[in-house]
Amino acid sequence: MPALELSEAVPFAAAERAPGALPAMGVPAPSASTGPSPSLSGAHVPALDGVRGLAILMVLVFHFVAQTTATNGVEAAVTRVLSYGLLGVDLFFVLSGFLITGLLYDARADPGYFRNFYMRRVLRIFPLYYGVLFVVFFILPLVPALRGSEIAGLGEHQAWAWLYGVNVYVSIQGGWVLSYIEHFWSLAVEEHFYFVWPLIVWLLARRPRALMAAALGLAVLSLGARAAASLGGVNPVAIAVFTPFQLDALCLGGFFAVWLRQPGGEAGVRRALLPVALVAGAALAGEFGLHRVTDVGLSLARAVRLGLFRVVLASLLLWAVLAPASSLLVRFFRSRTMVTLGKYSYGLYVYHHFLSYYFVTHGTDLALAGALGSHGLAVAVQAAGGMAASMGAAWLSYELFEKHFLRWKRFWPSSRRTLVVARSFEGGGRS
Description:
Layout: H1 12-16, H2 46-66, H3 73-82, H4 87-106, H5 113-139, H6 158-162, H7 166-173, H8 185-204, H9 208-231, H10 236-241, H11 247-260, H12 265-290, H13 298-322, H14 328-333, H15 336-343, H16 345-362, H17 364-372, H18 375-406, H19 420-423
């Protein structure tokens, strides 16, 4: 996440970052029969908006469905599978690293490199984020019905949110203690990344191999730090949300963004994509198979498992960039539904957890089941309603509030050299 939560009922982020891998796929070279792959210097790549849409859809399913209380074996199996939806946050991280690094690398020689980047980020991120914090901390406590409630009590810890420190606070506390705004931990991770990464890119951009080595090296260090923390008994919530333990996803995306921009880079990525995805997928399958029969090395495996998942997610992203437009997966990502979800993903991410957290903590699915006569139906109805309400809030927020700030971006233009894959970052999505 993105993500989330959350209640301790499914400690995927905190304890094991759920199992289950996405299918590994190779990317065929473009041919006359399939049409060319999307150019890295041509038109916008809508499939990347769809990748963002998939990421937010996974998060929504996790919070609205996987977090509910299973009442039978079938529901338990379903919630277990859907708990993998929290990997949508990791997909957001990989995508953000990919797009952010592309923007920065293409603008490396611009005189307004830092100013333009940060002003555009401020205009995209701050209005919604700080607007929501203002409502939560100053408006909602004035509502008589909410006085003394859990959401009103968040004001005692508001400094952490204002300073993008939600992930730091929950790491220190060792638990999910910020209720309605716990999902802001992933926004804090990305903001910390934005604070440091532009300088690294600027310093190393003239030596792209050094920049790629730095990105890959930081990714390996992050994975290693996560493994060491797991073995050292660091609390699992901190391992799940603390920024240094999440850098492998962001830097992995950055590594591929730079590689694609080098002479012969697209061909090199095409050749490496299938083997890398297959190796990561095979390692995941082997690890899951092993730990179905023994718990030996499970603590270390959980830390490495997340890194393998992120490699698979990076492969999925690269497939969306490089595969022919006629391929089934690219058509899925370019569909109106997925692109629309991607456009409003930032608002969806920010708003949805206020509903899903309330549903989970108040057991509204159980109450609804009494009225409908079926708990499974109640969960489906509640999830559909919650997602629709979240989409409505995100649409209103973007159309009536956020996009007016985005118009000011024209005063801080991005580089004219910016490649198409980076340009989708400038849309309405979460990243």
